[in-house]
Every structure is written in C-alpha cells, then in structure tokens.
C-alpha cells in the first residue's frame, strides 16, 4: 500500500501529507484562538467584577462613612477570593487607595491611566502596574446625586492569563494527535479500498485501461448514453449514435435539441428511471433502460438502448402461440363439463368467441343430437341442425338455434364435412360458393360486418359429427393459414367431448327406455287403496329405484318401493329382475318377512354371479365401474282393508310416513334389516300397524329426503312439513311433496308412492264357522245365498253356491279344524253391479289342493276344476294356523260364465286331490 508505483500508495502518501499539514495548521490556529479567547475573558471578567463592586449596595455609604477603609476592606478581599482576579482596588478622586485586597497597598497613591474613570467613564486597558503586565478595568462610583466620588479598579495579570492558555495546550496537542491518527487510518482504508478496486495498478496502467474501456464502450452493440443533470448529453457511444441517428456535435447539446421522438426525448430529459420500455425511433423499436447516477454520483443518468425490432416480431408470434395454448387449455377445462350434446356445443362456441373469433356457430347432425351413430362419410346434402351460436347480438343475421339447414354441395360447410378438412374463406364478399347457398342471407351477413369464416369439421373416431364455423367481423383481421391449426385442435377436443356426450345420450336413452319398460305403466285395479305415484330419474343418469302396487288375495294389497345401488343400464336391469322376483314371490302369498328374506338371497346370488363372471361380461357401457352390485334396499308392506292392519318389513330402506285423517304425520319405528345382499342370512323382522280409514301411507326412496345440501334428518323434517295439513287426495299429496322436496338437479332417482286407505264395512263381509261334517255344507251354502240376495247379487247365486260348496267340501274332507268361511264383496267403483266377490275357506291344515288329470274310472273329485272354471282366480295362502283356499268371481254382467252347456267329457278329465 506504501509503494509509490501504485495509485493507492501515491494517494495514501498524498492524503497523509495533507492530513499532517491540516492538523498542524489547526493546532496553531487553536492556540492563537485560545489566547485571544482567554484575554477577552479577562477583560470581561475584570469589567464585570469592577461594575458589580462599584454598584453593590453599601459601597456609596461606606465611602461617605467616617472610615471608608474599614468598611470597604473586607468586601474587597472577599471579592478577590471569589472572582479569581488579582486585586479589587477602591481609591478616591485624589488617587489615594481607600481599600485594596492587599492591605499593604491601602493609603498609597495609585499610578495608572485612571483619569477617564474619574470623569465617569468605565474602561478596560492593559498596562504595566504594580502587579506586572495586567489587564485592568476601572469603573466610577457615583453618589445618589450622580457625582463620581470614587473609582473601583480590578486588575488580572497577563501571567495568570497565559497560565490558563498553557493548561489548554495539552488538550489541543492530544486532539491534534488523535485527528492525525484518524486521518492516517482513514487514508489507509481509502488507499486499501482503492488498491482493491484498482488491483494495485499505477497511473499508467489505469490510463491504458481507460483507453481500452473507451474503445470497448464504442464497440459494443448496445447504445450507451450519459446525460447530465441539466439534460445535456455528456456521452454517446457509436451504437447509440447509430440507433438514434445523432449528429456529430450531439454531445454537450440538450436532449430536446437532438431531433428525437417526443416521448423518448421526454424520458431522457426527465429524472424518471425506466426498465426495457419500448420507444419508436425512426423505423426501429428500442428497448430503453435508464438509471439515475444520484446519489452515488453527480446528477444525471445512464441510458442503454437495445434494438428489439426483430425480437419484437418473434416475441409477438410467441405471445400469440402462448395465448392459443392457454386458450386450448381453458377449452379443455370448459368444454365437456356435462354429458349433454347441446350443452357441449354451447361451451365450444363460448370458448371460441372473443379469443379466436367474433362469432361461432356449431351445427350437428340430427342423429348426433339423438345419440345415434352417423355414417363415416356424410353426403354433401347432409342435414345439419344449428345447435349453438355465440357472439351475436339481438339482430342475428345467421340461422337461429334449432333451425334445420341443408347446405348445398359447393358450400364451404359441405366441403369441410365431405372432405374432412378445414375450409378457410378469407373474404366472404368474394366467395361465390358461399353466397350461392342463400344470397339474401349472405348479403345480411356481410352488412352485419362479418367478412371472414373458417369451417372445421367435428370428427371423432373417424366419424364426422357436424361442423363448427368461426366468423370474424369488422375490427378483426381475416383468418389466415396460421389460424387453421388452432381451429382444428379446438374442434378436435370438442368433437371428443361431443362424441362422449352422444354416446352417453344413447346409453341414457336406452337406460330410460329400459327402466320405463320395467316400471309399472298403470296401477292395477283394486279396492283397498287409492294410489298415486311419482317417479323422477336423476339428472346424472337412470338409477335403480322402483315401486309397485300388487293386488293380493282377500282384497289385500302389497306396496313396494326399492332402490338398487348405482345408475345406468346395469342398475335398471337389476331393478327389473328384483321387481319381477317380488311379483313372483307376492303371487305365492308369502309373509312380508319371508319375501324379503328370499329377495335378500336373490341379490346375494346376483352379486356372486357378477363377481365370478368373466371380465368382458362385467363391462357396463354407461358406467363400467359399477359392474358389480353392492346391494339394494327394499320396503314391502301389505295392507288388509278388512282389519286395517298393515304389515311392513324393510331391508335398509327408509320407513314409511303415515298421515292420519286429522293431518298429523307419523314416522313409525320399524325394525330395519340390513340392505339386500348384505343380510348374510339374518332373519327379517316385521312391524304391524293398525291404520285408520282415509289415512295416507307414504312410501319413498332416499333420493326424496337426501341431497348434497341436506342431511336425512333435515329431509325427513321437510317431508313432515310437506305432508302435514288438511286432507288431500293422493294425487294432490304427490304434487305437494314434489314441489316442496325437489331440488334443481337431483343426484338420485326419486320414487314416491302415496296410498289412501279404505276399509271394508260390515255390510261387505260375511263369516261362518263350519264344523267338520259334510252335512254342514248345505246350511252354509243356504246362508251364502241369503247374503247374496241381500246384496242384490241374485244373478251369481248359482255359481257362488257351486264354488263355495266345492271349497267347503274340500276342507271338510281333507282339512283340519277349525274351519271357517268368509265372503267378501268389493265395490271399487261404487256400483252395485260391479266389483268382485271373494270366497275364502280356512282350515287348520297346511296341505294345499291342486288340479290333476282325472281317470275315466274316477267317480268324482272334479270340484277344483269347476272352481277354476267359474272363478276368475283361485289359490291358496298359508297362515300361522293353517291355510286359506280362496277364489274370486267378477261381478260384471259379461264376466259371469254360464253353468249350462258344460260337457261331461271335459269334466271327466280332471280331479282334485289333497296332498
């Protein structure tokens, strides 16, 4: 660092010499100044002490007293001690000392320039006196009349003053030494930093480096400007001169005088920093960056210029590509959000507008909208239906949504579909093929400002589904070849979504058709209940909900609601299997718990078959992930109008609601068993209720009370509120419940069954106990004839007696006691000549009769054939104590068979036996 060869060493020595010189000069100046300050302090102090003593109270009285010296001497000595002066002297106008801090001087004549004080003017002076070279201040003492009666003099010797200066010299010298050390250390640090920054280079090397840097500055391909704080150009390299076309004498001239663009000149002349701001200079686009030199340097700024004309063009193309990639990404997120063909077409049109086209239309083949397959090569005259339009205002010059169009073969739309490629028409006004389709409509489109179109076929799996047409109107450039690839990619993505929606529509339609074919199309005629129903499939697809009303023997009616887990064809097909099974089991008059037990076994068997089936057979087109059933729920209830008893069993299904005639709503507590297929052979429990007449039984599936925004408890409470109130018909009840409970987009199927109960009155039922004696048949037959006569049914007495005689005889011969007979009459329409007559014979045996072919040699036993011939239906149901053989006879006039004309050969073919 001390080497004279380096710039840092030279700077260090120079700074050290300068620091020493400055410290020495400062030390001398401080000493001189200290002396001056001490002398000034001495003058001020002596004058102040003299004035204070002269004007002190008692000084005038002491002078006028008999012994002034005695009165003034003590204060004079005290004043000297307290003020630090050399003496306090009081003398008269005659120059005789009256008081002196040195008692030896009292009475002596004072020698000194005190004449001015005698005249009444105080003064301060330096002179040689008795004490040596001193600074003396004299102040006159005036009596009350204003006359000078004495003079007070206070001297301070110069020796005392010099002594005070000498006391300050060590401090000044030490301060100077510290300052010199600090200056040396600071110089060393500066030199060290300078040495590090200059890498120990000397002045020669620094000069050579500057020359090299200057050469480089002018050789770089980036313009550099240095602008002063006053807005004048201080430096411009060669590249800056070329980019800005600066004149040769540009330096030292103001920025505004260089002929630059106004915006660029404003930036260069301002004190605003900038980073890569683009400005126009002649035919170039310059990226300008500006940094201020303050506070790290003198006022001004450094500006760099880069030519971005070509880079801008490349960036523009890259930005367009990025925006289109982003548009494709957004299209993937926005197109195909639903499996609805029309909605998907609307999403495609909405995505294309504003980002790529001003107007977009989507035209699809009619089979696509219906979910059907289309031909791989559609003809040029293919009919298209406008499915979506986006970007048009109220004044629409294009075909509206829903209109059927038949483009001519020369139309760009037909060409695009026939050849399977995009067709670009940059200028519609010059396209005769496009205008030939509809000249008047083409004129309206051109008047609307639309000037360019791009038709792209929608292809998926090699099949053309339709076409999307992009339009541009005034204010937008016409379509170019670079736009075709983006349009194709957008159409390809949308076509896949449309094809998926088409396939889903097909499968959904098939599932809906299948489910509707499996659900009841009309409720059967019966007299026990007045029934209404509602069924609503889910928005996401057909499910496995079902309901049923099944008439049973003895005017009883079975009500069924069930729900197969899942949606789609598989759930609908499984629902059909279960509904058929319930029908078959119900025909056998099984108890409710036994029926659900058999149904549980059936579902478990179906599950096992699905699991063990080959993988290709488990595929389900609509929803392949649901190839295996995970269970089903079912609720089965049997209502008997003769007693008002309701037997209910549930397998994982929500219990029914009972609305009493007074409008109160109850949800009876049921013994709920596990869902079907999960019961593992466990027994099903039955709950029996007594339901009053005109009560409403409400059976439903869980889709009615459960929703994504509502839990089952809240749904049950809402259902209670919807059911409560004044009496309503089942149809009105269904309407009120659906209005109150239905959401905008139900996620699950909804099945609702409402049945209003009826009761058979005493005048519609007749019962007799029968002993096990063949002779007891005749009295019962006679009583039956009397009751039929009371009911006004004389026309059926013969057939009724015949049927009843055969049934009672069969029970007496082959059954066991107790034996009872019940006769029921139903009037569903309230007409005396309509309805059904039901015969029931109960006995204590569990064996059931059956028809068989009789032998020629048999003497009898053809009674059951007669029953089957004259009754509409007959059968056997088991009870807890035995069985009941029943038969039904219609009361319609044309439904009663005649007894005459029965051929003996036909009767001889059958016999009835007891098993």
TrEMBL record:
Keyword Lipoprotein: no
GO cellular component terms given for this protein: plasma membrane
Primary location recorded for the protein, binned into one broad class: membrane
CDD domains: HATPase_RsbW-like, PDC1_HK_sensor
Top-level lineage group: Bacteria
Keyword check for NADP: no
Signal peptide positions on this chain: none
Protein location: Cell membrane
One MF term in the entry's GO annotations: kinase activity
Coiled coil segments of this chain: 592-619
Record's bilayer topology term: Multi-pass membrane protein
Keywords, ordered alphabetically: ATP-binding, Cell membrane, Coiled coil, Hydrolase, Kinase, Magnesium, Manganese, Membrane, Metal-binding, Nucleotide-binding, Phosphoprotein, Protein phosphatase, Transferase, Transmembrane, Transmembrane helix
E.C. numbers: 3.1.3.16
Transmembrane segments: 169-190
SMART domains per the UniProt record, alphabetical: GAF, PAS, PP2C_SIG
Function text: Primarily acts as an independent SigF regulator that is sensitive to the osmosensory signal, mediating the cross talk of PknD with the SigF regulon. Possesses both phosphatase and kinase activities. The kinase domain functions as a classic anti-sigma factor-like kinase to phosphorylate the anti-anti-sigma factor domain at the canonical regulatory site, and the phosphatase domain antagonizes this activity.
Name the record gives this protein: protein-serine/threonine phosphatase
The species this protein was found in: Streptomyces monashensis
UniProt lineage: Bacteria, Bacillati, Actinomycetota, Actinomycetes, Kitasatosporales
